[in-house]
Amino acid sequence: MSQLTRADLELLDAKDPLAPCRDRFTLPDGVIYMDGNSLGALPRSTAARIADLITREWGQDLIKSWNTAEWITYPTRLGDRIATLIGAAPGTVVAADSTSINLYKLAAAALKMQAPRRKIITEPGNFPTDLYILQGLARYMDMELVTVPRDRLLQAVDHDTALVVLTHVHYKTGEMFPMAQVTRAVQDKGALMLWDLSHSAGAVPVDLAGANADLAVGCGYKYLNGGPGAPGFLYVAQHLQDRIEPPLAGWMGHATPFAFTDEYVPAPGIARNLCGTPVIMGLASLEEGLRLFEDLDMGDIRAKSLQMADLFIRLVEEQCAGHGLEIVTPRAAEMRGSQCSLAHEEGYAIMQALIARGVIGDFRAPDILRFGFTPLYLRYQDLWDAVACLKDIMDSRAWDAAAYRTRAAVT
Ligand SMILES: *Cc1c(COP(=O)(O)O)cnc(C)c1O
Fold it and tell me: Which of 33, 74, 127, 233 is an active site residue?
């Protein structure tokens, strides 16, 4: 196999059916954005939508907009849009709160449902907020939290296991669990399965219904392009919905919030998982991100994402050999999400040097450089340019500068 050239990648761009999607985003000149797995890029329509929300819906129509602009149904309307991306039926998803809070809500409700089982299982190295929320919940509800490495995890699920919580695509390595298989094994032991789809929604095809998933949460500001701090989402399978006793039993989850009664009565269905007043600006921004997927097929997105990762890995191997960059993302397509992670002990400084040259990925301690593939706005030629930049930084040791060693608050 001869070495790839930039012309090979330009040819792929010319034939790419998703190429026109790039125009749906506002991207700064001179930037190769490979961090859509952390904060999605800005859709072209978002600024105008937010301006209209503020000046007209809020400024002119004031409180009437809860009805006239249908603000009140935003969480369920967007939930139904998200459902189409994750293989869920209408009425099983709401957009609300943050992923952390949604995880708390669903995990707490699941533990209540599963009494007297007392054990929660997750894996070490899961995303920190997932671990912290579960640690807090275990202390608060007097449960036992056990972390088991993934090669032994399913054997650890037993008759005392109430709930298993896993992130479908690992935030650091990009490794993906076989959802249906894991869900079945967990359910066979009578435990409930909760998936965190933060690095899956909008990134890889997900089939919650096909996998017979119980519960799921996910993020709105990564591959869904909802903007910084956009609301997340939660999913509850139909058959569990009326068994949920919301731990945060707020008025937006009440059967009749505007009856203003003293007694809490949970809404039927998915809506009981809402708590307080929806964050309308965040939801409006998330809606613009979701709109971009309307006419797209997750299969096409996945095909481009996989090809991009293959090419990126090949380019790193061809161009950057001998620099100690270890590819930690699995090679097998069915075992990875939409990112490639490289390990290097100087990872932080290398990533800062890349960012200084307009190639934006991110760093995850202690040694991971992450490069996200977002097929809607990333071009094949960008992969060439990103790896050429990485090669130059490694060959010249440009990363070896004091300025690149100072850690910022957000890495
Ligand atoms: C990004 C991410 C989160 C984010 O949670 P927030 O509450 O939005 O801060 C949670 N879990 C995983 C696995 C993530 O990747």
Answer: 127
